[in-house]
Amino acid sequence: MEKKKKFAAKLSILSNLILTSLKFIAGIITGSMSIVSEAIHSLSDLFASIVTFFSVLKSSKPADDDHPYGHGKYEDMSGFIEGMLIIFASLCIIYEAVRKIIHNQPVETENTLGIAVMFLAVVMNFLISAYLFRVSKESNSISLYADGQHLRTDVYSSIGVLLGLIVIKLTGYYVLDSLIAIFVALFIFNTGYKIIKQTWMRLLDHSLPEEEINKIKNIVSNFSPDVTLKEQSIKTRRTGPSIDIDLILQFKENTTLCECHKICDEIEKQIQAEFVNSSISIHAEPVCYKKDCPTCKSEQQVNIK
User: Fold this and answer.
1) Is the domain covering 2-203 a CATH 2.60.200.40 domain?
2) Least enclosed by CB within 10 Å: which of 56, 189, 193, 229?
């Protein structure tokens, strides 16, 4: 799986490098602001792909003395950086497009080359983003998922630019070029915001969604009445591609240590089947009431003395 993740990251870098170069060349030759905006979009994707590649390399390292919980946070951090790059690129595009509109600088030129390049971008980004989504789902990699999102937004924005170039070629309405660039930039900005929001929550150890927590609760409830989940004792978080789950389970007073261990193993097995690449920590304690428990009564008497 690690080899597949690295290959996917390398493939993303190569495709972004090719498309960025082609878009910049087409944008310069045709003078189209919408193509230049797409080139800047692809350039941010290229930087993001490079960050993703190194984060995958780093996060795949096993836990060590300095990082006992592994290196998964590198993927979350890379996703956050990628989101910032996308937002920065969108603001640059908006600035340049508005400047052209204010100063009335439409460029009338033959854009057949731009149409061909944008069509190629749509096809390449669709195929590679689909592959990135598949690998990210298999490996639960947030950085590959974020990289796939970048390319998928590039697909939609490239389609918009492609259609706009065709309309401009047919009608000669060249101011439409800058308007399309602004539309693309707003689309890019929204994608960057979503990625930043998602990765920021992970960096702050935000818990899993309520629906996923309910899945864990349902698994534990299947072992009732022998075991119950202590109220408000479940803790969850995502760390890069992995999930950390902490539980406090309460067992009947007459449950043996062997039985307790067996039930905990079965609960862990079922949770890991539901949540791939999860690390589970279970603290077991008896369902104990001090007023009825002889052990607690004796401890209480010792404390009083």
Assistant:
1) no
2) 193
